[in-house]
């Protein structure tokens, strides 16, 4: 590359033509880039200033023996942050390419006699350096945005865990660009560890592949994930397991909107705390399937559900169902022994057990459901006044 003193006349010519080069570049952008024509007038004006700054940067680069110099990222400082948020990296590269093409076309008019090849070579090298500078600017912006998003998500998760008001949840979700997509549910599991932003990014990648809205955040050693638009949240959580660490993953019940998500989060968190009491639990598991463990761990919601929706339902259905269930459990789950205790035919016991399953959703012949029924009976009898019998 020619030393800067050999390009002195060329540099003076480029400086004089800086405004015209920027104008031609912007005009070319309007001709060849359909998306550029759709930008507001003020943003197109900012692009003009960036193009002028680019030409001045070329002159400065040439003066400083260009080939050994990096282009300063300050070439993009003429653009406000709003413009940087409006244009992605691919669009910025397109703008740079158009501007460089225009400068290359103008080389015969810009270069002093005999300096055309030197200027053309310098422009090619400068375009490479500008592309690197743009990549650095966008990489830093992405890192900053990623860290900020992780912080916002952590705040939203904290608000969910605390059960903050719906206004707080809505404002923080809006800042994250959350698109309301009912139903909404919350999944809780162990964080895989490492940088929080990396944990959240891995979760987002998995969610994009299956087309669901997610907001995730690390709360202590737990990863709390809000699922939006998941008609089958258990199945969705199954496909997001890659984002969780080892151990149980518990999914709260679906709710209509993000404002109601604290209810789902409360159930999922209670289920996560109680899950070790059921070592054979599937992964993921519904919080509703952990009702007996949650009740034993002191979860008031689980105790209320078992007391009112199981014990209360059985009591309201007639004393014979409770009597049959007691006899069945006392007989160790043997139908014939229960029938002899009740002085009825075994088929009568079978019929009543089917009615219990239909009424409560829990089948006494299933060991898991029988455990839940036993806990419900104990809770209901300890506090019959709260069983909804009045």
From TrEMBL:
Q: Which InterPro entries match?
A: CdaR-like_regulators, CdaR_GGDEF, PucR_C-HTH_dom, PucR_C-HTH_sf
Q: Give one Pfam family, short name only.
A: HTH_30
Ranges for domain CdaR GGDEF-like: 163-272
User: What superkingdom does the record give?
Assistant: Bacteria
Record Gene3D superfamilies: PucR C-terminal helix-turn-helix domain
Q: Where is the PucR C-terminal helix-turn-helix domain?
A: 321-379
Endpoints of the signal sequence: none
Family per UniProt? Answer: Belongs to the CdaR family.
Full protein name: Fatty acid biosynthesis transcriptional regulator FasR
Q: Say which species the protein is native to.
A: Rugosimonospora acidiphila
